[in-house]
Write a structure and sequence with these properties.
Blueprint lengths: L1 H15 L6 H19 L3 H18 L7
Helix pairs in contact: 1-2, 1-3, 2-3
Length: about 70
């Protein structure tokens, strides 16, 4: 059940996060979205922040055209 919750937090964080202009901003925006989603979902904010930051950086680096700059 915990893995399912973490997957949900990761998916929501990716949907909510904006890309940012550089890797630092991407990590910050994704991490903030992950913490917010984890707090609302009753999950671990640290894990949510890490998943959100990593997920947003990975998405933005792999899909640079998907972000408005």
């Amino acid at each position: 059940m915990r893995i399912l919750s973490l997957a949900g937090v990761a998916a929501a964080a990716l949907l909510l996060a904006g890309c940012g202009d550089n890797i630092g901003e991407q990590a910050l925006f994704g991490g903030a979205a992950g913490v917010g989603v984890a707090a609302v979902a009753g999950g671990d904010p640290v894990a949510g922040g890490l998943v959100g930051a990593g997920g947003n950086v990975a998405f933005c680096q792999l899909n640079p055209g998907a972000c408005r700059r």
